[in-house]
């Protein structure tokens, strides 16, 4: 796997209890790890939308409480290497705070937060699908990736 560092302003993601490296610094979360599943086919629109649209989606989905100061995107090693990519050191798909992966059987392409505790407790990760990240027609169903209008990240799996 390779890593792309993104200094961006994004919305909040719940800090996971399972190995997260997230730090809160002056209202901004640092070292958020977003990992693209090794099974995802190469599509740089996913990365572009993480940089631009996913950030806003998360910001609005969490009631504009916080922002992401820095994000690390873990890119599958099967994707074409780019000069801005760096080798991963301690960031792994299995420990990511946000994943881009295959649709869930229960929720399909709808974003959700996997958690083992009750509603309102910190989750394990937030799950987006590549289809959600790249297919603009899904905005009619789940709302805008850019503004978080309509829908939102499900934070309780029932």
From TrEMBL:
It comes from the Eukaryota. Keywords: Signal. The keyword Signal applies. Residues 1-16 form the signal peptide. InterPro entries: CLCA_N (IPR013642). The keyword Signal applies. Residues 22-147 form the Calcium-activated chloride channel N-terminal domain. This is Calcium-activated chloride channel N-terminal domain-containing protein.
């Amino acid at each position: 796997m390779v890593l792309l560092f993104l200094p961006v302003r994004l919305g909040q993601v719940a800090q996971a209890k399972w190995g997260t490296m997230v730090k809160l610094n002056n209202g901004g979360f640092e070292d958020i790890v977003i990992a693209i599943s090794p099974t995802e086919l190469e599509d740089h629109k996913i990365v572009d939308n993480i940089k631009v649209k996913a950030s806003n989606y998360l910001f609005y989905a969490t009631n504009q409480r916080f922002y992401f100061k820095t994000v690390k995107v873990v890119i599958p090693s099967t994707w074409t290497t780019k000069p801005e990519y760096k080798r991963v050191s301690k960031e792994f798909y299995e420990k990511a705070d946000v994943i881009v992966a295959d649709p869930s059987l229960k929720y399909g392409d709808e974003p959700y937060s996997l958690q083992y505790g009750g509603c309102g407790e910190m989750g394990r990760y937030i799950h987006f699908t590549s289809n959600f990240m790249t297919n603009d027609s899904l905005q009619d169903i789940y709302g805008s990736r850019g503004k978080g209008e309509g829908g939102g990240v499900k934070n309780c799996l029932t």
